[in-house]
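ESCALATION

Customer reports they have been waiting on this structure for their group meeting. Please prioritize. Original submission:
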Amino acid sequence: MTRKVLTGFYGETDDSILVNAKTILSSMTDNPNFVTPAPALADIAVSLEKYENALIKARQTQSAQDVEIKKVDKTELQNLLSKLAIYVNLTADGDFVKLESSGFQLNKEPHTHGILEAPHAISLSSIHAGQVEIKIDKVANASGYLVMYKEIGEEIWNNVLLSKTAGIIKNLKSVAKYEFKAAATSSASN
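Update from on-call: job pushed to the front of the queue and completed.
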């Protein structure tokens, strides 16, 4: 996975967007890794000051109009920061040192877990004719579970991938016996 700066600022609190914007603006100013930022840092500085003033005023007056102005100014700042983050990602092209120098938060470094342990137990219960509910003991670091099953005496295994520790297997023969096995999976395994 390539390292990148985060481009979304829409879940941030009023104060966190303010702090992050100041950090980014300070880090990007005269940064030799990013000589022609787009949008211009001057535009971001104006938007940041406008938002900070609107935030202070909205907190003081608590009027609906001032709160709405603050929201509009915050959205404008978020949009500018998102565009700047895209510029940073394109310019840095995955270079960690350049990305780190921008002041933006980086995506998480991929973490591998190695081979996951096998589930300790699986349990089955019939819920309707031709359907079985399967429950698998949770395995640390697993993001899903591969369940394989086949009718006893057959050679070909069927499989289903579950995103949770429980699921329903359908289209089974009502009068047949099946065997099941399960394995934990993770997108971060290697």
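Sent to customer with the following note: The helical segments are 14-28, 41-61, 64-92, 96-101.
Escalation resolved.
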